[in-house]
Amino acid sequence: MQPFMLESTSQFRAPHPPALTSAQYATDLNETKAAGSNLPAGDPKRDTAWFWNANAISQLNKTLHDFATQNNMDLLDTVRLLAMGNMVSTDAGMACFDSKYTYRFWRPITAIRNADIDGNPATTADATWSPLTTTPNHPEYPSQHGCVTSALAQVLAHAVGTTNINATIWGATAATPTGLVTSRTYPTVQSLMDELVNARVWIGFHFRNSVIAGENLGTSVANWELQRNFLPTDALDG
C-alpha cells in the first residue's frame, strides 16, 4: 500500500530480531512460555491481556472521539485529531507490515512447540503449548499493536502538547473478547506503552522485544510525520 505521508513503508524498518541462538531470544521465549498461556481467571494479568485484545481500529477511533470530548475540542480540532489519529496510525501499521514480511519471524505458538530445533540450549519445546486465544495470522515481529498504539499515543500527546495525556481507553474482557466493554485511564504516554508491552506477552501473541520494537517503530513514524504535517497555518493565512 502507498502510505499517506511516509516516503516509503520501509523508511523506519525495525532492526533484525534477536538471533534464535541468542540469550535475548531465550529470555523472551521463556517469559512468553511461562506467562502467556494458562493465566487463571481473576488474575489481573489475564484481565490486561484480554483488555488489549479488543478490535484495534474500533478502539483507536473511540479513543480519539472520547479524547476530543474530554478535552472540549471544537469541530475543527476534533476533525484534525481524527485525521491525525487515523492517518498516522495507518502509516505506522503499513510500516509495521513492511518489517513483518521482511523478517517473517515465527509466533510463540510455533516457536515454543518447536524449540527443540531453534539451536538454543536455553529453550525447551512444549508440543502442547497454546496462547490465551487464537494467534493472529501474520508474522510476529514487530508487534502490530505496538506500532499502531504507540503512534496513537504520540498523536494524543501532540494534540494536547504534553505526554500527560490522561486518556481513557475502552477494551475487551474474556466474556466479550473483541468488544469495547470496559475502560482504563492512562495518565501518561509511558504508562500506556508499558501496559501494552505486558499485555501482548501475557496473551501469548508476542515476545517482549517484539512489542518494544513495534512501539519504537510507531513512535518514530508518528514523530516524523507530526513534525511535517497537521501544522498550524496561521503564518500562511495571516
Question: How would you summarize the topology of this molecule?
Answer:
Elements: H1 23-35, H2 44-51, H3 56-70, H4 75-103, H5 108-113, H6 144-160, E1 167-171, E2 182-186, H7 189-202, H8 208-226, H9 234-237
Antiparallel strand pairs: 1-2
Overview of the molecule:
With 238 residues, this protein is mainly alpha-helical. It has helices at residues 23-35, 44-51, 56-70, 75-103, 108-113, 144-160, 189-202, 208-226, 234-237, and strands spanning 167-171, 182-186. The protein has a two-stranded antiparallel ribbon. α3 packs parallel to α6 and α6 (144-160) runs parallel beside α8 (208-226). The protein starts with 22 loop residues before the first helix and ends with a helix. The model has no long low-confidence stretch (mean pLDDT 96).
Largest pleated sheet: 2 strands, antiparallel
The backbone outline, from C-alpha atoms, is globular
Could you give the order of the helices and strands? HHHHHHEEHHH
Q: In which order are the strands of the major sheet placed? A: 1-2
Low-confidence stretches: none
Number of strands: 2
- Overall radius of gyration: 19 Å
* Structural classification: mainly alpha
Helix content: 40-55%
What is the helix tally? 9
